[in-house]
Amino acid sequence: QVQLVESGGGAVQPGGSLRLSCLTSESISSFNAMGWYRQAPGKQREFVARFTAARVKNYADSVRGRFTISKDDAKNTVYLNMNNLKPEDTATYYCHALRSSVLEGRREWWGQGTQVTVSS
Fold it and tell me: Across-strand partners of 74?
């Protein structure tokens, strides 16, 4: 059973920074894709950033240039470094992992979510 454990959420002022962490129970290399999504109150969950199977970094237009996804394979951890935070970044942020195999097919997992609040 894959588990994703998130940390790093909190409250910051506009222009501030946070680093979210996602500790995985499996090696990062065992996943075809890993990344971050967020969901604001009353809105649908949206893509934020991810590593593709080729470890190419993808970003949503709304965060490109401000957020950076990174990883530490030795620590089984994926990070989301968030800079120049804006009030519209306020949301619950979720870690996501995807694995596809012949035996199990396409499977995906979500973290529990961590709250990010950006306000004055």
Answer: none
103: left (phi over 0), alpha (psi -120 to 50) or beta: alpha
Distance CA 93, CA 37 (A): 6
Q: What is the pLDDT of residues 41-71, one digit of tens each?
A: 999 999 999 999 888 999 999 999 999 999 9
φ, ψ at 117 (rounded to 5°): -125, 125
CA proximity to 38, closest of 55, 63, 17? 63
Residue with the two structure tokens 């949301």: 91
Residue 28 CB neighbour total at 10 angstroms:
19
The stretch 32-45 carries a mean pLDDT of 96
Predicted pLDDT at 92? 98
The counts of H helices and E strands in the chain are 0, 11
